Amino acid sequence: MDDQLWFNRVALLIAVAVVVVGGTVLVVGEHTASASGSAPSSGAPATVDYLYLTIAFNPVNGMDEYFPANFTVPSNTLVVITITNYDNGTNLIAPQYSQVAGTVGGSATIWKDGSSTPQTYSSVAVTDVAHTFTINQGGLHLNVPVPPAGPTGLPTTVRFSAEFTTPGSFTWMCMAPCDPNSMATPGYMMGTLTVD
Ligand SMILES: [Cu+2]
């Protein structure tokens, strides 16, 4: 491990520590805000909830991990999900997982490698994926490919909106072959989305 890599690893551990410490703040907000302050012209005011996830490495064992991996969102509410990815590795995926599916508009927004310029995407190259956020269960079909962080570790952030109409527990998984242990261990590259 050269100096640059070592620096990146230390920076990453700090980032993870911040996320873990701040987790209670970042985990699904209980707040339900009126969208942009103005009520729609008809029907009830739209409500929006926010979920923030981070992909990084477990500070103890180094395994690829989503922080948090288990979370709850409200039903029948627009949920804006933001995933910040610090993993700059790529993992070749099957073509169907390179497509964004099940999100509002069938697309997601990406800020690549720490960029401040957002771009909209509906698919990526199968070679440009670090992890995915995928649910194929109980009538839910959600798939968002998450491209890698930049070569020096600047994170790549993706954001998408989804609405969950059926209360229950759903297993999400990463479908990129990132780390066999992580992929087989609940709490790392799989977890539970609870809709209440
Ligand atoms: Cu993964």
Q: Are any ligands bound, and if so which? A: copper (II) ion
- Average pLDDT rating: 84
- Named at the architecture level, the CATH assignment is Sandwich
CATH superfamily: Cupredoxins -  blue copper proteins
Query: What does the overall shape look like?
Result: globular
Helical fraction: 10-25%
State the major sheet: 7 strands, mixed
Counted beta strands: 12
CATH top level is: Mainly Beta
Structural class: mainly beta
Beta strand % = 35-45%
User: The CATH topology is what?
Assistant: Immunoglobulin-like
- The run of helices and strands is HHEEEEEEEEEEEHE
Task: Extract low-pLDDT stretches.
Answer: 10-41
Report how far apart the termini are: 45 Å
The total tally of domains equals 1
Number of helices: 3
From the alpha carbons, calculate the radius of gyration and give it in angstroms: 17 Å
Topology:
Layout: H1 3-21, H2 23-26, E1 33-34, E2 47-57, E3 64-67, E4 71-73, E5 78-85, E6 108-111, E7 119-121, E8 131-137, E9 140-146, E10 156-163, E11 168-173, H3 180-183, E12 190-195
This protein binds copper (II) ion (CU).
